[in-house]
Amino acid sequence: MLKRLNITGPNGAGKSHLAARLAAVRPDVPVISFDAMKLTSHWRQRSRALIEADLSRAVQADSWIIEGGPSLLPFAINRADSVMWMDPPEWLRAWRLIARPLRNIGRTRKELPQGNVDWPWQQYKFAMRSIRNRAAFRTKISAQLAANPGLRVWRIRNSADVSSAIDEWRGAVDGVDPWALS
């Protein structure tokens, strides 16, 4: 049964949105936002020691959906039974990274701690760095997945992949092995 899921990918890939959709079909599995764990307010990060201690405690639970970028993988992948790798086309990511700060201007997104307000200029500088690092993100994710065989891995590139992953996640309830259904 799939019950410990790591959703990974670069900024703007749709990780938080997918986590919310997966939680809606399996509300018994809590969602953990790595960004919420890392940040205090005004986009300041907590100390690495505090982040790692909280993350270590969180992944010891019996079930979870944890979403975050490639830097999360080394901490969560050893306890995960599955990984959803969000890898949309670059144009879609760029569009999301442009639209997100405008959609949330002056507000804190629901997956973040209060006080982390989206302002376009600040977010656009961050987005540009993220887009330039696409190859590095893919390399990090690929290496972590290769080093951890036996995981159920979805590489999600489009809406059909999202639907398929959600259907399989939904079917992984009550001990049903979704891989045995075919």
Automatic annotation (TrEMBL):
InterPro entries for the chain: Cytidylate_Kinase-2, P-loop_NTPase
An MF annotation (GO) of this entry: kinase activity
Keywords on record: Kinase, Transferase
Name of the protein this chain belongs to: Adenylate kinase family enzyme
